[in-house]
Automatic annotation (TrEMBL), chain B:
Organism expressing this protein natively: Bradyrhizobium australiense
Function field: Cytochrome c oxidase is the component of the respiratory chain that catalyzes the reduction of oxygen to water. Subunits 1-3 form the functional core of the enzyme complex. CO I is the catalytic subunit of the enzyme. Electrons originating in cytochrome c are transferred via the copper A center of subunit 2 and heme A of subunit 1 to the bimetallic center formed by heme A3 and copper B.
Subcellular localization: Cell membrane
Gene Ontology process terms (BP): electron transport coupled proton transport; oxidative phosphorylation; respiratory electron transport chain
Membrane topology label: Multi-pass membrane protein
MF terms (GO), sorted A to Z: cytochrome-c oxidase activity; heme binding; metal ion binding; oxidoreductase activity
Name of protein: Cytochrome c oxidase subunit 1
Gene3D superfamilies the UniProt entry points to: Cytochrome c oxidase-like, subunit I domain
UniProt pathway: Energy metabolism; oxidative phosphorylation
Substrates-to-products reaction catalysed: 4 Fe(II)-[cytochrome c] + O2 + 8 H(+)(in) = 4 Fe(III)-[cytochrome c] + 2 H2O + 4 H(+)(out)
Family label: Belongs to the heme-copper respiratory oxidase family.
Cited InterPro entries: Cyt_c_oxase-like_su1_dom (IPR023616), Cyt_c_oxase-like_su1_sf (IPR036927), Cyt_C_Oxase_1 (IPR000883), Cyt_c_Oxase_su1_BS (IPR023615), Cyt_c_oxidase_su1_bac (IPR014241)
Amino acid sequence: MRTRATRGVLLALLPSSVLAGCTGWQSAFDAQGASAISIKQLMVLMVVICSVVWALVIAVLIRALWRGREQVERSIGPDPVIERRTARVVVAAVTATVIVLAVFTVVSFFTTRALTLAGHDDLTIKVRGQQWWWGLEYLGPTPDERFETANEIHIPVGRNVRLQLEGIDVIHSLWVPGLAGKQDLIPGRRNELTLRAERPGAYRGQCSEFCGLQHAHMALLVIAEQQETFDQWMRSQRERATDPSDAEIAAGQQVFLSRPCAACHAIRGTSATGTNGPDLTHVGGRRYIAAGLLETTRGSLAAWISDPQTLKPGNNMPMVALSADELRSVSAYLASLK
Amino acid sequence: MSEVKPDTRDSELAPPALAAALAETWRTPVGLWGVLAAVDHKIIARRYIVTAFAFLALGGVLALLMRLQLAQPEARVLSPDRYNQIFTMHGTNMMFLFAVPVMEAMGVYLVPLMVGTRNIAFPRLNAFSYWIFLAGGALLWIAFVLDMAPDVGWFAYVPLSGPQYGAGKRADIWAQMITFTEIAALAVAVEIVVTVLKQRAPGMSLDRIPLFVWSMLVTSFVVIMAMPAIVFASTSLILDRLVGTHFFNPAEGGDVLLWQHLFWFFGHPEVYIIFLPAVGMVSAIIETFARRPVFGYLAMVMALIATSILAFGLWVHHMFVTGLPRLGQSFFTASSMSIAIPAGVQVFCWLATLWDGAPVFRTPLLFVIGFIVTFVIGGLTGVMVASVPFDTQVHDTYFVVAHFHYVLIGGAVFPLLGGIYYWFPKITGRMMSETLGKCSFWLIFVGFNLTFFPMHILGLAGMPRRIYTYQPDMPWYGLNMFVSISSLVLVAGFLVFFIDAIRSTRVGVSAAENPWDAPTLEWATASPPPSYNFAEIPVVNGLSPLWDQPGCLMVASGLRTDRRELIVSTVAAAKPQVREASPRDSIWPFWAAVATTVMLIGSIFTPWAVVWGSVPVAIALIGWFWPKATPEDES
């Protein structure tokens, strides 16, 4: 009932056609996480009150301009009686301002307190922001339960997930508007952010602190799924990379390991252990490559490998000259890493 | 040589002879020498204003380029590198080369006239300030032309701007440009403080100072107190980059967040450095066009002072998502909210003034009405972003871009344009066109709102600021295209304004002394004012001298006419104390500025430039301050 009322007010305030274009998988309007929902309620409250305040000011302004417009002569000197009356009105208006501000301060304080805080037994994920992708490390109670991935965070629905945020090079900011507000990843500091998705779905996020050349292409995806699906995903992520199932894929693996790829990327189960670039152990199972730039297909992998500097100018992946056959097989290999 | 001439006083001369004598004493020589040596506050301020508006136009072109790039997803109009330079240039240029200088320049022009004196205090410092400002602007724009402009955003966060990630000389150019504008702004601030406190016309006690002058005084104190933070910040950034210190390097015990604290300790008051003079302009315009004194003079002055003090207590609201302790966040939420109280007081007092006044709808008043409509929106969204949880959603998004353009364009540029229409006849002696003025107002007002209001929605819909492009599957395309097209309306409005301003300097209707029937002293002299401002120094016995004593202003006499003299008065009551000599034209401020520029630009490349560069600076300063054996002041 409450949400319907607030949504109604919001729709009244903004043209609905505009709003329709704004819901989406990266929008504060479309709140599906615990903190995003409470922030949205705060937002609606503030927008409504502020709109009323603005409308009152404008009404007074129009009235003030209207009533004096027929006066021809300059007033000789303010009438003390009228001045006193005006002073009372101004004092009342200032008092009302103070009350509104006090209400906002208190409400915002309680909203901050209500933003979910994770307990220590919750799922903890280390997020490393770096130019221009997200390194992820799922921590577990034992070392063999931890694993590396990149750019795609899977979380179970309805559970608090604690993100430990680290800036590797410059400052980045993790923002998944559908789930929660943002938090910076700062070199030399450790910040935390708690996510809690109330509904399953894919929520897009994006770096929101300017971090250099490819700040615009530093997206990530949070996929909230039911506990069983999530557990299954986690189990498969802990596995080493699948072995080549045919000759072309095996050739691709050879290309990957013999060319410079392995210097920067790790594929668990092979001799590739580089850490400069994203872990590719299960890259074929992720929805996007290059931090949200392209959907993962064999074709997009090949396009990316053959010319990363045109697709994402300035990023840290060099162009490695491969023959057509090498490119075909290495993209088949990477696509097979589900 | 004043020794050989007789000591002539203004009281001994008849009006025409007095004017001739004063004009001879105060005139600025013609020719190149006059251009470089001028110390007349009106000449310097005019240059300052014209230069700042030129930077506004350039910054506007940059904004258009950004809108061209963002109109479509994955557009390739600009490379990411060029785009990053452009948004950095746009912000830096608009804040440091347009907004602050133009506000101070309006003060440099108007404050001496409004307080009834003949020149600003420290006129040579004033000349120096302009040259330094010009050099800083030139440095930034030449770097841009050479494709080596800063690309780290106008607040240049470390480590992105630090030695490891900010390659080349781009961040150094940014930091040194800051140094130039710091020096220029500090110089003007000192002049204005001294002019207001010590050079007011006899009788203009503290409670009779026009509100615009109050706002410039308060602004100048904010400049003096805020600038040291950025001086330290930009200097330590250069040290990190040039000589390998580790102020901001966490690996060596430095701290990344230290930069943000220092920058915003300056950066937030910076907003009020821009906004408070605009508030003063609004008061001046409302008073004249509502045809009554501003309601609640004391409350207005107190609101100005309260704003300036609170301005220093809310910088952390720029850092709500950096992971600060909860208690600190709550404190800064409360302090950020509270600055809306003095802002509210002022808005209510203006409304009360209009309510009890008899408004005349001329272009300046239109801009002020536009100011109230838009600034209140900007203020209210400001209250929203002061709330920590709300801010975590909108920080660094287009919502914030919308918010600060509402505050800075709505809150400062609208009053400034109104102020230009208002004071143009005083500055040039000609009126601007009322038709073109109204036309430009409506284009700017409508264009501005159509351009910036949708950005609120874009921000909430997830669009971060400072992205050079976005992907086609994001739902932002339609609104971005709409914003880009609307920006053309805004640009058309500014074009009309510029055309009107340039045209009116030639063909505008000649202006009388006081074309708007305004109450303050700048309207008590010819339009444009003579080099000596006032033939006889007015005596003030009320808040609205030209309304209180219409046509027969009392004057003070006894100043010498054969040398530049002005009255120094007491701080509170403005009782005349001494006759003070005002410096004559001098080429030395120009040379000092050249020497300083060489030193500062050299220091981008080598720290030794500071050592060897200080020698020419010292020589220039010795020339500047060489004693001339003339008595400084007489009681």
